[in-house]
Design goal:
The chain has about 425 residues and is mainly β. The chain has five helices and 26 strands. It starts with 5 loop residues before the first helix and ends with a strand.
Length: about 425
């Protein structure tokens, strides 16, 4: 952060940096910081005038103090985040093209120094001709300050000179410096953190059921498959009269229900409606039968989980290529779940080899209707054995692992596989 001298320090740093460049390129040229209307009144015969003509609050960082954070162990004070707009005007002997030469010198320098470094700021603050900057702490600002050229068209330049400066136009370019943070003197008040959230026994939304997590019965790390048993945990899950679960447009009544947990075997859901991919599940509390005409019942939040497909068979529909040539053809894959016509299906092939195995990804053909099998064309594949995985909207089928400790491939992935001949 920086104090009230921040803006003046940026202007002085730019002036000093440009002065060192232009005086080497054009003898006698100086960098001034007067109003454009005052150019020619006591200014050198040739030079660059640097004028801050607009200051705008930075839209990204201006509200950082809305959520105070800690820096170096101390509370951050309120701050203003500013973007500074500068007009660089060039004047001199037009016959010798001094304004254009000065413009080239300035643009080259600012292109090389696109960031105002801490060392540039400290050098300006140590300048004996700028004693009023000795208390500036802009060099301690953590946020980087960048110098960005502005693409002003002729209309913009005309309005700027006629409205802001009200003087005759001279060769000029505009730049923006962002972002300058000015720190206030007072620190914002900060209350104690909330230790616990209590509702005095009342639950939000009139005891509406709330789902917090869905996992397989074996644990959160276990994949959810079509024959898995779901464990739904949350609050107020058990209804007063009955408890249902809505999944894939089907409502079922699980038998293992408590206020904080529901156990739901996916076998209760018809296999024809289950689809691989992200599924949405809700807990519902239907009204009492005698009161159903007046009450709708209660519904929980919609909680997602990923249902993974199981690859049943992989067959090679066709293949082209001979000897060691790369193969092209089609694979037909059968899964245990319905694949939607609009779902994206990708097949991953990993060569079953320990010596620099290759891998491939191929998209399935576009489908016009739901199905349990897909055709996947492949091309430029080396002949060999490949492990096959199917990804339906990101839900990936699992590979089989050899669990026989006496096997030579113990703890290896062993299937599903396809031999590309």
């Amino acid at each position: 952060m920086s104090n009230y001298l921040a803006v003046a320090t940026v202007t002085a740093t730019l002036q000093r940096t440009l002065q060192a460049a232009v005086q080497m390129d054009i003898e006698g040229a100086r960098v001034t910081t007067v109003r454009p209307s005052d150019i020619g009144n006591g200014t050198p015969e040739s030079g660059v005038n640097l004028f801050l003509y607009q200051v705008i609050a930075n839209p990204t960082l201006n509200n950082m103090d809305a959520t105070p954070f800690r820096s170096r162990g101390m509370p951050t004070k309120r701050q203003a985040a500013l973007d500074l707009y500068y007009m660089f005007s060039f004047y001199g002997n037009d016959t010798e093209l001094e304004p254009q030469r000065l413009m080239g010198s300035v643009m080259r320098t600012l292109n090389d120094k696109r960031v105002i470094s801490n060392e540039m700021i400290r050098t300006a603050c140590r300048d004996s001709t700028l004693p009023f900057l000795q208390e500036s702490n802009l060099a301690e600002q953590v946020q980087q300050m960048s110098i960005v050229p502005l693409d002003l068209n002729l209309d913009d330049l005309s309005k700027t000179w006629s409205v802001f400066f009200q003087t005759s136009y001279m060769l000029s370019v505009a730049y923006k410096v962002l972002v300058v943070l000015i720190e206030g003197e007072e620190s914002p008040a900060r209350g104690l953190p909330i230790r616990d959230r209590r509702t005095n026994g009342l639950s939000p939304y009139f005891s509406q059921p709330q789902i917090e997590q869905i996992s397989a019965q074996g644990g959160v790390a276990e994949a959810i498959l079509a024959d898995s048993t779901l464990v739904i945990t949350g609050r107020q899950l058990k209804g007063a009269w009955a408890t249902g679960v809505r999944l894939c447009g089907v409502e079922v009544m699980p038998t293992d229900v408590t206020d904080s947990q529901i156990v739901l075997p996916l076998s209760l859901i018809p296999s024809t409606v289950l689809q691989a991919g992200i599924q949405s599940l809700q807990v519902i509390h239907p009204p009492q039968a005698s009161d159903s005409s007046r009450r709708r019942g209660k519904e929980s939040n919609a909680a997602p989980f990923v249902l993974r497909p199981r690859l049943l068979t992989v067959t090679q529909a066709s293949t082209g290529g001979e000897d060691d040539e790369l193969r092209s053809g089609r694979l037909q894959l059968q899964v245990n779940l319905t694949i939607g016509a609009k779902q994206r299906v990708v097949v991953a092939l990993n060569e079953w080899h320990t010596d620099r195995p290759t891998s491939y990804l191929f998209d399935a053909l576009v489908r016009t209707q739901d199905a349990t099998s897909v055709i996947v064309p492949f091309h430029d594949v080396s002949p060999g054995d490949y492990l096959v995985r199917l990804m339906i909207d990101g839900a990936e089928s699992q590979l089989q692992v050899d669990t026989n400790p006496d096997s030579s491939t113990y703890d290896w992935y062993v299937g599903p596989k396809i031999l590309i001949r």
